[in-house]
Structure formats: C-alpha cells, structure tokens
C-alpha cells in the first residue's frame, strides 16, 4: 500500500525527468505498481482510511510521484454527478484537444507539493486520449471539465512537468484568453 512517505516531493529528481514507456505484457512489478496507484487514489478519498494512514486526498497519482520512471498513472473521480471515473492509464497520449481552454478557478494542487501554489493553470477544455490498461488493451476516452484537467496534470508528471510550470510567474491570476473557469463543488 502506498503511503504519504512513499510519495516523493518537489525537488526530487524523479519528478523532473520524462518517464519511460512501459512494455507489455506487464512485469509483475509493473502490474503491482498499477494496482498500488489506483488503490491509493481510491483509499485517499475515504475519510476513515485517510485518518488511519495519514493520507492526503487525491484524484490522481503518477508513477514518477513514487519514484518510478514509468509512463503510468491512476485517476479516480467520483464527484461527477454520474458514473465514477476510475482507471489506470499506461503509455497515455492526448490524440486531440479543443482550442478552448479551461482552468480550476481555485487552482491546482499536487500530492508531491506540500504548499499552496496560487495561480491559474491553463488546460485544454476537452481532450481525446488513448492509453492501455494493465492487460495491454488499448482504450480511448473523451474527457472534459475536471477529468480532462486531472488527466493533463497526471500526463505532465510523465513528462517531468509540474503544474506550477504553467502558471504565469509575473501574473499568476492573469486571464487566460477564451478560457472557461471550472468551479469545483
């Protein structure tokens, strides 16, 4: 089980290098990593488990955040008013995106960043993605709103990019042209 002590923090070199493609069939270690990533984000949204194990709630976790240079991350979102979105993405890619941008009006956070970072992080409002599941099956999804934002945040981790790299350093709340803010409940 991944705990907060297993998650590396900003400044760790694993967060700044491009992760390596994963080969199929998955090794036992890679399969375990995929299971551990999704287990963490699911457990971190359970108040009792957070208290018991000292977890910080999160909706996504990428392999580089646990010092594994693998192109793999997990997303678990339940607040969409519909079906929960929960998956592991291996060797993920954005295959198309909208011109329209969006951003979280309250700003983004990260399990690897132990401080508040103020500012808008511009993201594509809609994306089409391709990735593989742990069994090597390719899947394609269209994401918008919060799922699209979370996917782009986690994909950045696989490329050695932190969310705050996208924030305008001179004007963190600079208006993003043609962007629609996303309000989290």
Please describe the topology of this protein.
Layout: H1 28-43, H2 47-53, E1 60-62, E2 72-77, E3 85-97, E4 101-104, E5 123-124, E6 126-132, E7 138-144, H3 146-158, E8 179-182
Parallel strand pairs: 4-8
Antiparallel strand pairs: 1-2, 2-3, 3-6, 4-5, 6-7
Notes on the structure:
A five-stranded antiparallel sheet has the order 1-2-3-6-7. Strands 5-4-8 form a three-stranded mixed sheet, with helices on one face. The longest helix has 16 residues, at 28-43. It has a single domain (4-182), classed as Peptide Deformylase. It starts with 27 loop residues before the first helix and ends with a strand. The protein has helices at 28-43, 47-53, 146-158; strands at 60-62, 72-77, 85-97, 101-104, 123-124, 126-132, 138-144, 179-182. A hairpin with a 5-residue loop joins strand 6 and strand 7. With 185 residues, it is an alpha+beta fold. It contains three helices and eight strands; from the N terminus they run ααβββββββαβ.
Q: Mind telling me which CATH architecture this is?
A: Alpha-Beta Complex
Report, as a whole number of angstroms, the end-to-end distance: 29 Å
From the 3D structure, determine the CATH topology.
Answer: Peptide Deformylase
What is the mean pLDDT?
95
Largest sheet: 5 strands, antiparallel
The low-confidence runs, each spanning 5 or more residues with pLDDT under 50, are none
By CATH reckoning, the class would read Alpha Beta
Tell me roughly what share of residues is in helical segments.
10-25%
Order of strands, widest sheet: 1-2-3-6-7
- Number of strand segments: 8
Quick one: overall form? globular
Q: Helix segment count?
A: 3
Q: Over all CA atoms, what is the radius of gyration?
A: 16 Å
Instruction: Write out the CATH superfamily name.
Output: Peptide deformylase
The H-and-E topology, N to C, reads as: HHEEEEEEEHE
Structural class: alpha+beta
């Amino acid at each position: 089980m991944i705990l907060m002590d297993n998650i590396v923090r900003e400044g760790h070199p694993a967060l700044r290098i491009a992760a390596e493609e994963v080969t199929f069939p998955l090794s036992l270690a890679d399969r375990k990593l995929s299971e551990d990533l999704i287990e963490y984000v699911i457990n971190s949204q359970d108040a009792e488990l957070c208290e018991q194990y000292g977890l910080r709630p999160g909706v996504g976790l990428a392999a580089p955040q646990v010092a594994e240079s693998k192109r793999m991350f997990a997303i678990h979102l339940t607040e969409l008013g519909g079906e929960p979105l929960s998956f592991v993405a291996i060797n993920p890619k954005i295959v198309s995106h909208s011109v329209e941008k969006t951003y979280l009006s309250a700003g983004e956070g990260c399990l690897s960043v132990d401080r508040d970072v103020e500012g808008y992080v511009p993201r594509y409002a809609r994306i089409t993605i391709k990735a593989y599941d742990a069994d090597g099956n390719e899947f394609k999804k269209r994401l918008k709103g919060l799922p699209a934002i979370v996917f782009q945040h986690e994909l950045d981790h696989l490329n050695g990019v932190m969310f705050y790299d996208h924030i305008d350093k001179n004007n963190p709340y600079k208006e993003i042209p043609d962007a629609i803010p996303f309000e989290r409940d």
